[in-house]
Amino acid sequence: WTSVISYEGDQRYSMMAQREAWYEDEEATMERHGLLGGQQVITRRGASTEHDLIRRREQIEDISQEITDVQEIFHDFATLVKDQRVEIDDIESNIMDTKEKTDEALKEVVMASDYSRRKRNALCYTLFFFLLVTVGVGIFAYELSGN
Questions:
Q1: How distant, in Å, are the alpha carbons of 117, 118, 120 from that of 114?
Q2: Distant-in-sequence, close-in-space partners of 23: CB < 8 Å, separation ≥ 6
Q3: Which residues have a Cβ under 8 Å from the Cβ of 52 and sit 6 or more positions away?
Q4: What distance in Å separates the CA atoms of residue 37 and residue 141, rounded to the nearest whole number?
Q5: How distant is the alpha carbon of residue 73 from its chain centre?
Q6: What is the secondary structure of 1-28 as a DSSP string?
Q7: Residue among 10, 17, 4, 12 nearest 59 (CA)
Q8: I want to staple 30 with a disulfide (CB 3.0 to 4.6 A). Which of 35, 55, 120, 135 is the partner?
Q9: DSSP 8-state code for residue 36
Q10: How many helices and strands (H and E) does the chain possess?
Q11: Separation CA 69–CA 75 (nearest Å)
Q12: What is the spatial distance between Cα 127 and Cα 125, in angstroms, rounded to a whole number?
């Protein structure tokens, strides 16, 4: 915005300077040719000054409007930042909750793995025990039937 305002201001200043130079050239030309008297030059300068004052007032009003627009933009920007801060806080809270739940889930997976391993070991020991009992009963039955 600053560059736009500056550019427009530079253009206006340049136009004012050109117009003032033109008025001075015209007055000098008319005075040389005797077309204007002293009173007419003063009247023309007065009208030019009044016109410049009106134009400057309009420029000031334009700048005032631009400042109001910039103020509204900053206000909107502040509102967006405030709204986004709330959303960022929510996201941060959700990330923290997710991390805690992930840590708890990892502990449960480790416990489940340990439980599964112990269950497999118990099953193997039970099968081995039944195998020994079966072999023992088989040997005992063989000894009884062979004697």
A1: 5, 6, 10
A2: 44, 45, 48
A3: 16, 20
A4: 151
A5: 15
A6: -HHHHHHHHHHHHHHHHHHHHHHHHHHH
A7: 12
A8: 35
A9: S
A10: 2, 0
A11: 10
A12: 5
For residues 121 and 67, give the distance between their C-alpha atoms in angstroms, rounded to a whole number: 80
What does the pLDDT look like over 72-87, one tens digit per residue?
999 999 888 888 888 8
> What residues contact 20, with CB distance under 8 A and at least 6 apart?
48, 52
Render pLDDT for 37-78 as a digit per residue (tens, 0 to 9). 555 545 555 567 778 888 888 889 999 999 999 999 999 998
Question: Exposure string (b/e) for 101-137, b if CB count within 10 Å is 16 or more?
Answer: eeeeeeeeeeeeeeeeeeeeeeeeeeeeeeeeeeeee
Q: What's the angle, vertex CA 143, arms to CA 142 and CA 146, rounded to 5?
A: 80
Residue 8 · residue 65 · CB < 8 Å: no
Q: Which two tokens stand for residue 88?
A: 């960022």
The two structure tokens encoding residue 34: 């005797």
Q: What is the pTM of this model?
A: 0.41
What are the φ/ψ torsions at residue 114 (nearest 5 degrees)?
Answer: -65, -45
Distance from chain centroid for Cα 134: 75
Give the whole-angstrom CA distance, residue 42 versus residue 27: 10
